[in-house]
Amino acid sequence: MSSTASNDGLFPRGPLLLENLVTPYCEKLGLYKLPRHIHVIILSALFYQLINLLSPWISNQFSRHYKQLSRRSKLNWDSHVVSSVQSVLLISLGYPILREVNRFSDKLFGYSVYAGDIYALADGYFLWDLYITIRYLNVTGFGFVVHAVAALFVVTFSYSPYLMYYGPTYLSWELSTPFLNIHYFLDKTNKTGSKLQIFNGVLLILTFICVRIVWGWYSAYSTSMEIIRRVTEIPRGLSLFYLAANMSLNCLNLFWVFKMMDAIRRRAHGEKVSPVQTANSEVAKKNL
User: What ranges do the domains of the chain cover?
Assistant: First the structure.
């Protein structure tokens, strides 16, 4: 059912022993292409955890404010550091993955090893994110556990394979993440309301609107039309889930951008308000 664009992966193939170990379980879930990428998912999750563990030492070297933060704020700070690394990594792979999926002959079931490896980096991040939200449930809240589960589910089930062609749309959302994180760091380093933060806020809004609203809604429409056109070829439950998740994420983006615009407007008038916090700043580390 899938069409293959490339047999060359971004990373070397993992141990066949590991692939053989997980294959029976993946096949029961219909994730037929997942075993080939399981090592990348595991290693990327461990990589993000390493960044999280190194963040206190690195942050203390570059900012005198870190040691003054509360435990809750330090946990959020460290998560934003991981988010920054993840977003820059995926942004740097934006053009290669876009070029790769454009070679697919099937928009619904197209697959390549190269694309699968890139999505595995995102999958590893969401796996790490789920671990963090569960471990610090009293800090993150149950809502973000649900968010992490949903994000992990959406990326993982692309290994059916399903909708890998549309993956670059959601990866492009990471273009707004560095600006969100910069806003957070400026807030925590006593630069709230500074010219730098206002300028960054303008770039944040412009980027957010372009990649998450304009491009996001157009892609949501294109994805929905393709699913509806070929709805008889895929399980109805899976189709409904993706359509609902797609619409929910895009509606949330619309809600967040209005919140951020309002907060930046208020800040420009001298009010002490954080646009990142007002717009639910945790989206900066929990992007899809």
Answer: 16-285
